[in-house]
Amino acid sequence: MSVDYLKRASRTAEDTTAEARPVVEAMLADIAARGETAVRDYAAKLDGWHGGILVTAEEAERRAAEVPAALRADIDYAVDRVRRFAEAQRASVRDFEVEISPGVVAGQKLVPMAVAGCYVPAGRYAHIASAYMGVATAKAAGVPTVIACSGPRGGSGIHPAVLYALRRAGADAIMTLGGVQAIAALAHGLFTGKPADIVVGPGNKFVAEAKRQIYGKVGIDVFAGPSEVAVIADATADPEVVAVDLVAQMEHGHESPGWLIATDRALADAVMRRVPELIAALPPTARDAAGAAWRDFGEVVLCATREEAVEVSDRYCCEHLQVQAADPAWWLANLRNYGSLFLGEETTVAFGDKATGPNHILPTKAAGRYSAGLSVHKFLKPLSWQRMTREGSRDVALATARISRAEGMEAHARSADIRLARYFPGTDFDLGEPVTG
Ligand SMILES: NC(=O)c1ccc[n+]([C@@H]2O[C@H](COP(=O)([O-])OP(=O)(O)OC[C@H]3O[C@@H](n4cnc5c(N)ncnc54)[C@H](O)[C@@H]3O)[C@@H](O)[C@H]2O)c1
Ligand SMILES: [Zn+2]
Description:
Keywords: Metal-binding, NAD, Oxidoreductase, Zinc. The protein is of the alpha/beta class and 437 residues long.
């Protein structure tokens, strides 16, 4: 491949994970040992929160009512769209049964998990949209109990618009908790008495690492860490729009990569000139985050052909992938690794982040190679079952007896033997060589 790196990153995703690992390990062990007391200690130390953890229904309602009516209407609009997409996902999977051979029926039954924990980040920004992305999707999957956690934003607790969004999306319980302590509290069922079956939601490197480490005790959606954006652009793209969109996602945090994969040198040069200017013109919080993100994690790759651009993009496996290039259908058909795809200049990651409908909780750090983002499927177990008639069981039993004995598993084989003897008395079957060892 003849790709040319016009800008290279000085830090990688592995660096940030490595920084979080020991901190998270110690916190999870402490919370496992000391429970709610440890959680309260971390909430006080890390987030300055000394108030109650469980938000009462009365308090949630009162504070949600502080949200201006126009913003409430926008949130309602977005929640509806996320719910509609999630309901379409639910309708795309179904229970089924199939007669595999005469008298042998097997099936799939979709069973929602009983308790879902939804994390809503709250460090740098009030993540209103993450509130409905998690909760509305769990509810569309049919999860009866959804417990949400979000960190305090100032002295009065969770941001009122986040509270409004959580209620609107259908949260059954809400806790004022952020970070590792929130993930642990959800997994152990602290404060609610209801340990989650799955914990979902995006977060910073500590939150993402906490989910990774606690996985096994509890299910998780995916490794959804610091946001990433890649734009694939050819000579037809508008460099100003490309630059604005890259900067938009780097606003998320110091560790949010922005990658440009270009097939045109002039376009790449124009974007690289413009990005620092756009960052410099942002308000301070966003400027700090995007400035560091571009300096440390930004990359610009120049490819000779669009096939090469696909290869490079599949290797990056970016969380958010925008294509601002001719022939969107070709890109949709050929790209294989990403969290979510945004085709054409008319759409952008920011739309998907807030209001289009598909979920914004998406795989980062190349987890898109093996998993998609949050969807109703993550909350549903496609459980299998089987049932057979006596006649139908005969051939299955014979294969089982012989395979079991070939494996050296005599007790398994006898489960087949006893049925054959009862259902087909007097018949002489070839049951394989008895296991002697
Ligand atoms: N992948 C996705 O789908 C997706 C979607 C939206 C947002 N995001 C990402 O979510 C993240 C939100 O990050 P945030 O920091 O603003 O909010 P956050 O809620 O994820 O993290 C804040 C918490 O981190 C904990 N914390 C901070 N410093 C710590 C330390 N030194 N040790 C232990 N714990 C510490 C605190 O308890 C705090 O409550 C961003 O990185 C953003 O890119 C990802
Ligand atoms: Zn974003």
